[in-house]
Amino acid sequence: YTLSLHDALPISAGMTTVIQCYSVRGLEVVAGLNIATTITNLFNIIYIQLGGCISIVVGQYLGAGKLEEAKDADNKMIAFSVFCCAVVACVMLLIGGVFPQLYNTSEQIRKLATSFIAVSAIIMPFCTFSHASYFTLINSVACTKKYTLTIPSPEKCAITNANGTMITQVNAES
Fold it and tell me: Which of 44, 58, 112, 149 yields a CA-CA distance of 20 to 30 A from 24?
């Protein structure tokens, strides 16, 4: 709960700011962004799930105390994720102009959507690397046993250090 809240606020604030900046450029830009975002999110599922896989595999190695195997698996899986998403990004670049044609809208909006899809494809490998690295860091912190995440009930969540001192607690009262 705490980690989700901690991560979600900066991301949502950033996305809100970016969308606000686009929205003052006109309805055509917003429509093109909506088309591109819909298609891009379909492709983003790949690197999001690969990050989850890294978390599971590396977490298993770290939990078993196999640090060298965890490092090796992590490096290989990050490289595999970036490679896979680079291939997907190339596919996105090649067929990115097809998706906006499926929408009943003006040619200007289609061109904007195609441009947004191209930009999303170009940055996809970088997003993949940062996403995979994020899960690596989360696993590393969680498995150092310096901090413990305790969820005694769906309404409460606490993070404590090795001494048992509570660092933070969140109460999600309805």
Answer: 44
- Rg (C-alpha) for the chain, rounded Å, is 20
Strand partners, 156: 153, 171
What's the rounded Cα separation, in Å, for the pair 136 and 52?
Answer: 10
CA distance 173 to 99: 43
3-class SS of residue 64: coil
Instruction: Give the pLDDT confidence of 77-118 residue by residue, as tens digits.
Output: 999 999 999 999 999 999 999 999 999 999 999 999 999 999
Could you report the per-residue pLDDT of 133-157, keeping only the tens digit for each?
888 877 666 555 554 444 555 455 5
Q: Per DSSP, what are the bridge partners of residue 171?
A: 156
